[in-house]
Amino acid sequence: MMDYIKDTWRELRRMNLRQMMVQGLQLGLIVTSALMIWKSLMLVTGSESPVVVVLSGSMEPGFYRGDILFLNMGKKPIRTGEVVVFNLDGREIPIVHRVIKVHERRNGTHIDILTKGDNNYGDDRALYNEGQEWLHQHHIMGRAVGFLPKVGMVTIMMNDYPFLKYALIGVLGILVLTNKEG
After folding, report:
1. What Pfam families does UniProt report for this protein, alphabetically (predicted)?
2. Number of domains present in the structure of the chain
Protein backbone atom coordinates (compact mmCIF):
# COMPACT_ATOMS: atom_id res chain seq x y z
CA MET A 1 0.00 0.00 0.00
CA MET A 2 2.79 2.41 0.88
CA ASP A 3 4.52 1.66 -2.43
CA TYR A 4 1.32 2.50 -4.31
CA ILE A 5 1.08 5.86 -2.52
CA LYS A 6 4.73 6.64 -3.27
CA ASP A 7 4.29 5.69 -6.95
CA THR A 8 1.17 7.82 -7.20
CA TRP A 9 2.95 10.78 -5.60
CA ARG A 10 5.85 10.41 -8.04
CA GLU A 11 3.41 10.22 -10.95
CA LEU A 12 1.71 13.44 -9.85
CA ARG A 13 5.06 15.24 -9.47
CA ARG A 14 6.10 14.18 -13.00
CA MET A 15 3.08 15.81 -14.61
CA ASN A 16 3.54 19.18 -16.26
CA LEU A 17 1.01 22.00 -15.87
CA ARG A 18 -0.88 21.08 -19.07
CA GLN A 19 -1.29 17.43 -17.98
CA MET A 20 -2.51 18.55 -14.54
CA MET A 21 -5.04 20.90 -16.12
CA VAL A 22 -6.32 18.15 -18.44
CA GLN A 23 -6.69 15.73 -15.52
CA GLY A 24 -8.42 18.39 -13.43
CA LEU A 25 -10.79 19.09 -16.32
CA GLN A 26 -11.59 15.37 -16.59
CA LEU A 27 -12.36 15.28 -12.86
CA GLY A 28 -14.62 18.32 -13.30
CA LEU A 29 -16.42 16.63 -16.21
CA ILE A 30 -17.07 13.53 -14.10
CA VAL A 31 -18.57 15.61 -11.28
CA THR A 32 -20.64 17.69 -13.73
CA SER A 33 -21.93 14.54 -15.46
CA ALA A 34 -23.02 13.07 -12.12
CA LEU A 35 -24.90 16.28 -11.27
CA MET A 36 -26.56 16.33 -14.69
CA ILE A 37 -27.71 12.72 -14.28
CA TRP A 38 -29.13 13.53 -10.82
CA LYS A 39 -30.99 16.62 -12.10
CA SER A 40 -32.34 14.61 -15.06
CA LEU A 41 -33.64 11.94 -12.69
CA MET A 42 -35.33 14.69 -10.66
CA LEU A 43 -37.11 15.95 -13.78
CA VAL A 44 -38.17 12.48 -14.98
CA THR A 45 -39.44 11.26 -11.59
CA GLY A 46 -40.91 14.54 -10.35
CA SER A 47 -39.15 13.92 -7.04
CA GLU A 48 -36.64 16.21 -5.35
CA SER A 49 -34.72 13.10 -4.32
CA PRO A 50 -35.24 10.23 -6.80
CA VAL A 51 -33.08 7.79 -4.81
CA VAL A 52 -33.00 7.36 -1.01
CA VAL A 53 -31.43 4.92 1.44
CA VAL A 54 -33.51 3.29 4.21
CA LEU A 55 -31.76 4.33 7.43
CA SER A 56 -33.69 2.39 10.08
CA GLY A 57 -35.52 -0.88 10.65
CA SER A 58 -38.97 0.73 10.92
CA MET A 59 -40.12 -0.72 7.58
CA GLU A 60 -39.00 -4.31 8.13
CA PRO A 61 -39.76 -6.86 6.76
CA GLY A 62 -40.67 -4.90 3.59
CA PHE A 63 -37.49 -2.82 3.46
CA TYR A 64 -34.36 -3.25 5.54
CA ARG A 65 -31.71 -0.79 6.70
CA GLY A 66 -29.41 -0.14 3.75
CA ASP A 67 -31.94 -0.81 0.99
CA ILE A 68 -31.95 1.79 -1.79
CA LEU A 69 -35.42 2.98 -2.84
CA PHE A 70 -36.26 4.51 -6.21
CA LEU A 71 -38.91 7.22 -5.97
CA ASN A 72 -41.43 8.65 -8.39
CA MET A 73 -43.93 11.36 -7.53
CA GLY A 74 -46.39 10.76 -10.35
CA LYS A 75 -49.63 12.64 -10.96
CA LYS A 76 -52.01 10.22 -9.22
CA PRO A 77 -53.07 11.08 -5.66
CA ILE A 78 -51.41 9.29 -2.75
CA ARG A 79 -53.39 6.22 -1.64
CA THR A 80 -53.54 4.08 1.49
CA GLY A 81 -50.99 1.26 1.40
CA GLU A 82 -48.36 3.09 -0.66
CA VAL A 83 -44.84 3.50 0.71
CA VAL A 84 -43.87 7.17 0.63
CA VAL A 85 -40.80 9.17 1.58
CA PHE A 86 -41.59 12.38 3.41
CA ASN A 87 -39.67 15.24 4.91
CA LEU A 88 -40.90 17.17 7.93
CA ASP A 89 -40.45 20.93 8.17
CA GLY A 90 -37.20 21.80 9.94
CA ARG A 91 -35.70 18.29 9.63
CA GLU A 92 -33.01 17.20 7.21
CA ILE A 93 -33.43 13.42 7.11
CA PRO A 94 -36.40 12.04 5.13
CA ILE A 95 -38.52 9.20 6.53
CA VAL A 96 -39.71 6.09 4.63
CA HIS A 97 -43.11 4.83 5.86
CA ARG A 98 -46.42 3.44 4.61
CA VAL A 99 -49.59 5.51 4.19
CA ILE A 100 -52.30 4.18 6.53
CA LYS A 101 -54.97 6.90 6.12
CA VAL A 102 -55.81 9.50 3.49
CA HIS A 103 -58.48 12.20 3.87
CA GLU A 104 -59.40 14.14 0.74
CA ARG A 105 -61.36 17.38 0.84
CA ARG A 106 -64.45 17.52 -1.34
CA ASN A 107 -62.90 19.97 -3.77
CA GLY A 108 -59.94 17.59 -4.22
CA THR A 109 -57.30 20.28 -3.77
CA HIS A 110 -56.12 19.25 -0.31
CA ILE A 111 -55.33 15.88 1.23
CA ASP A 112 -54.32 14.82 4.74
CA ILE A 113 -52.00 11.81 5.01
CA LEU A 114 -51.17 9.64 8.04
CA THR A 115 -48.18 7.26 7.92
CA LYS A 116 -46.74 4.42 9.96
CA GLY A 117 -43.63 2.27 9.82
CA ASP A 118 -44.51 -1.38 9.15
CA ASN A 119 -42.38 -2.44 12.12
CA ASN A 120 -43.69 0.29 14.47
CA TYR A 121 -46.50 -0.14 16.97
CA GLY A 122 -48.37 3.11 16.38
CA ASP A 123 -48.81 5.76 13.71
CA ASP A 124 -46.26 8.51 13.05
CA ARG A 125 -48.00 11.38 14.85
CA ALA A 126 -45.31 11.18 17.54
CA LEU A 127 -42.69 11.78 14.82
CA TYR A 128 -44.48 14.75 13.27
CA ASN A 129 -43.72 18.28 14.44
CA GLU A 130 -45.48 19.52 17.58
CA GLY A 131 -49.15 20.21 16.87
CA GLN A 132 -49.01 18.46 13.48
CA GLU A 133 -51.51 15.62 13.06
CA TRP A 134 -51.25 14.97 9.32
CA LEU A 135 -48.82 15.17 6.43
CA HIS A 136 -49.74 17.22 3.39
CA GLN A 137 -48.70 16.97 -0.24
CA HIS A 138 -45.73 19.33 0.21
CA HIS A 139 -44.21 16.93 2.77
CA ILE A 140 -44.15 14.01 0.31
CA MET A 141 -40.89 13.60 -1.64
CA GLY A 142 -42.07 10.60 -3.64
CA ARG A 143 -43.49 7.10 -3.53
CA ALA A 144 -41.33 3.98 -3.65
CA VAL A 145 -41.50 2.27 -7.05
CA GLY A 146 -38.50 -0.08 -6.74
CA PHE A 147 -35.56 -1.00 -4.54
CA LEU A 148 -32.11 -2.58 -4.40
CA PRO A 149 -31.49 -4.56 -1.23
CA LYS A 150 -28.54 -3.61 1.01
CA VAL A 151 -26.68 -1.58 -1.65
CA GLY A 152 -27.10 1.57 0.45
CA MET A 153 -25.03 0.19 3.34
CA VAL A 154 -22.03 1.94 1.75
CA THR A 155 -23.80 5.29 2.21
CA ILE A 156 -24.71 4.46 5.82
CA MET A 157 -21.10 3.48 6.57
CA MET A 158 -19.80 6.72 5.05
CA ASN A 159 -22.24 8.73 7.20
CA ASP A 160 -21.41 6.77 10.36
CA TYR A 161 -17.64 6.95 9.71
CA PRO A 162 -16.90 10.22 7.85
CA PHE A 163 -13.20 9.35 7.38
CA LEU A 164 -14.33 6.59 4.96
CA LYS A 165 -16.11 9.18 2.82
CA TYR A 166 -13.02 11.41 2.62
CA ALA A 167 -10.74 8.44 1.97
CA LEU A 168 -12.96 7.22 -0.88
CA ILE A 169 -13.18 10.70 -2.43
CA GLY A 170 -9.40 11.09 -2.11
CA VAL A 171 -8.65 7.72 -3.70
CA LEU A 172 -11.09 8.35 -6.57
CA GLY A 173 -9.63 11.82 -7.12
CA ILE A 174 -6.09 10.46 -7.26
CA LEU A 175 -7.15 7.69 -9.65
CA VAL A 176 -8.69 10.22 -12.01
CA LEU A 177 -5.72 12.58 -11.77
CA THR A 178 -3.17 9.82 -12.45
CA ASN A 179 -5.17 8.22 -15.26
CA LYS A 180 -2.92 8.06 -18.36
CA GLU A 181 -5.72 7.78 -20.92
CA GLY A 182 -6.92 10.82 -22.84
Report:
1. Peptidase_S24
2. 1
